[in-house]
Amino acid sequence: MLKNSKYSYIKIILLGAIAIAIALRIINLNSREFWYDEILSLLLVTGQKSSYQNPSNIPVVLTNYQYLLSLPVEHNLSDVLHTGEKFLKGLVGEPHPPLFYIGQHLWLRLFGNSIAAMRSLSALYSVAAIACAYGLGRKLLGYQGGLLLAALLGLNPFYFFHSLNVRMYCSLVFWTILSGWAILELINPKPHKYRNIFWSVILIGSVAAGFMTFYYFAFWVATLGVLVLLQDRKSWLKHAGRLSTGIAITVPWLLWGTRQQLNNADLGRFAASGNLITTTLKHLQGVIQTLGIQIIIGDWASIASPLILTITGLIAIAILIFCSLSLWRANQRQILQTVLVLGIAPLLMMLAVDIVSGKFTLDFGMGRSAIFILPGCSLILAAWITHATGKWQTIIVSVLLTTYLTINVADLSSRSRWMFHQIADIIEQESAQPTLIIMNSNAWGHVMRLAYYLPPESSTMLLAQKPAKLIPALAKTLTAETQYQRLLWLNSDRPVWGSPTTATQTEQIRKTLDKQFQLVKQQRLTGTWKLDHFTVNLYQHR
Q1: Do 122 and 215 share a domain, yes or no?
Q2: Minimal CA–CA distance to 140: which of 477, 326, 49, 132?
Q3: What is the DSSP secondary structure assignment for residue 359, as one 8-state letter?
């Protein structure tokens, strides 16, 4: 009776955690602005990337950029097909496969380009991933293990952040889990013909979809191959045929799109530099920090120092080692083999390729390039809790899920993500006045976000250049007969495509403005990372 009571209590905790994870996604669809990469996704899926032009040294009407963030006006089928053609041509300049963008393009056509509408597709993918995590966990660890894996994934801070992101990483986790679940169903399958056909189709489809979502998914496909060789070698040919078929489906894109993408790729940014000791330490640091970000701190990594990230990563590694040793002592060798292959093997493969090729890709983007290791790492935790914690199981589950929930709530409630809204509010206060915005960044992520949040009826002009070019362009623009009554100077801490404004350049801009304008307000805007840090200076014409 006591055992059944404990089982029911854990079940309530896990179901509650899953419900909270889903509710948090729904509630927070519109809780923060588009960040830098999300606005680039929106520009791509409207099919208007080719129409984008970098700001010149002459002010431009900012609302001209606003139109690029919506679908173009279409009167007939020919217009729709033309938009589709431009959309596909825009994708070959990107480093990622097209499936995510295609899905998001169709979603845009159905629901529009609002923040909530654009993010809702990723949120749906994440809910589907949570459901599939239950299936994967149940197949390997039983009913309670399935609920536990679903709860761990749903509240994991790293995955929660990407669940509310207009990027491909959330859907990538879905395809990872679905293909992992399918391969486990096909290893030593039950003698049921149609069931095996069903899971074969699921495996082939999810492998193709995963590879067409993110090229590094190839490491996960190789991991599934390793699992087959370890656990179902006698049927390796059948499994190899399924995995190969999934990859073969993507050949048309590989021949047309990937070839063009490689021509446009900037692979030099991943190149290793330094001596053997330096590069070895950097590779090791990448592994450590990636595990810490994915398993523990999530998007807090954007403001954490390298030391904090390294310490967090070492804690994550210690946890994984402890869980593995506990499973070994509990005589759960088969489960331990499975979870280690799914969680650690793709990480080691990626590291090995980085070392051989002389690149640093594993920790790119604060760990998101290797997000496909997250389900396997979560499986290690779930397997340990299910089979090796004994009487401490309820307490450990409660503490772990509460910790994850606290990290997420603190992230959402304590960090500002409304920088460009505040800029738009300043403009809207006197939107009838002719206003010029000057900005020391002409990076499209900054320009397009500024345009997205601008009041639609605004006649605001934009002069966006690197600091060295901004100074002469500003002097030329501000003639004695200037039409501008207000001027908004946005000084970015990290202009992306150039260096920050120096103290000397800042003083030059200030002297140029003081000739005709008076400073009436200065405001500091900070976001969750340096790309979103601005000093805002509002000037009024004298």
Answers
A1: yes
A2: 132
A3: B
Residue 166 contacts residue 119 (beta carbons within 8 Å)? yes
Identify which of 151, 153, 147 has the alpha carbon closest to the alpha carbon of residue 134: 147
Alpha carbons 40 and 54: distance in angstroms, whole number: 14
- Contact between 111 and 117 (Cβ < 8 Å): yes
Is the pTM of the predicted complex or chain greater than 0.90?
yes
- Dihedral, CA of residue 323, residue 326, residue 332 and residue 336, to nearest 10: 30
Q: Where are the beta strands (DSSP E) in 413-498?
A: 435-439, 461-464, 486-492
From the CB of residue 229, how many other CB atoms can be counted at a distance below 10 Å? Answer: 12
3-state DSSP call for residue 431?
coil
Which structural domain range is residue 490 located in? Answer: 419-541
Q: What is the pLDDT of residue 194?
A: 87
Cβ atoms of 167 and 99 within 8 Å: the answer is: no
Quick: pLDDT tens for 485-524. Answer: 899 999 999 998 889 999 999 999 999 999 899 999 999 9
Give the phi and the psi of residue 502 in degrees, each rounded to 5: -80, 170
User: Are residues 409 and 427 located together in one domain of the fold?
Assistant: no
Residue 350's closest CA among 366, 335, 371?
371
Q: Which helix (H) or strand (E) holds 13?
A: helix 2-27
- Helix/strand/coil for 437: strand
Identify the three-state secondary structure at position 150: helix
How many domains does the structure of the chain reveal? 2
Do both 272 and 386 map to the same domain?
yes
Alpha helix ranges (H) inside 232-305: 236-248, 251-253, 259-264, 276-292
Q: What is the pLDDT of residues 278-337, one digit of tens each?
A: 888 899 999 999 999 999 999 999 999 999 999 999 999 999 999 999 999 999 999 999
DSSP, collapsed to helix, strand or coil, labels residue 536 as strand
3-state secondary structure of 143: helix
